[in-house]
Write a structure and sequence with these properties.
Blueprint: H1 2-29, H2 33-56, H3 72-78, H4 82-92, H5 97-104, H6 108-122, H7 127-136
Helix pairs in contact: 1-2, 4-6, 4-7, 5-6, 6-7
Length: about 140
């Protein structure tokens, strides 16, 4: 944090020095007004483009677990169907029940039924617990 503040303070000091230098040259050497305005306009254009790129830069975070091994036998032993597993995957991605229903082209009640079945089979009472238990059982990455 201190480094960022120091860099911004230093860059502002350089900017003020540059503007005062141009102002001095304008007043003393009698440069044209267009040059002075043009230099300031170019500087602020470059500054605006840089700030815009910095603020709109998308940050992507990819979390992968190289030790993850999907355990199909565990899935079968728990009796989780293919559709229930799809619901579980979408729960893990943070989708709501309505979003899951829209993605899987089923009704909201069907998603709720699959969720209830998952909770019983995984012996949990909440979505977050279901996702956590599925990760512990290596059903999800």
């Amino acid at each position: 944090m201190k480094r960022t503040i120091l860099l911004y303070g230093l860059s502002l000091a350089v900017l003020i020095f540059f503007l005062k230098f141009i102002e001095y040259r304008f007043l003393v050497r009698d440069l044209s007004l267009e040059f002075y305005i043009g230099a300031v306009a170019i500087f602020f254009t470059v500054l605006g483009v840089w700030a815009g790129l910095k603020l709109t830069k998308k940050k992507t975070i990819i979390i992968t677990n190289p030790a993850f091994q999907f355990d199909q036998n565990r899935l079968d032993s728990l009796g989780i169907s293919k559709r229930e597993y799809e619901v579980l995957e979408l729960m893990a991605k943070g989708f709501s029940n309505q979003e899951i229903a829209d993605k899987l082209f089923v009704s909201l009640n069907t998603v709720k039924t699959h969720s209830s079945n998952l909770f019983l089979k995984l012996e949990v009472s909440r979505r977050t617990q279901a996702v956590q238990k599925a990760k512990e059982l290596q059903l999800l990455a």
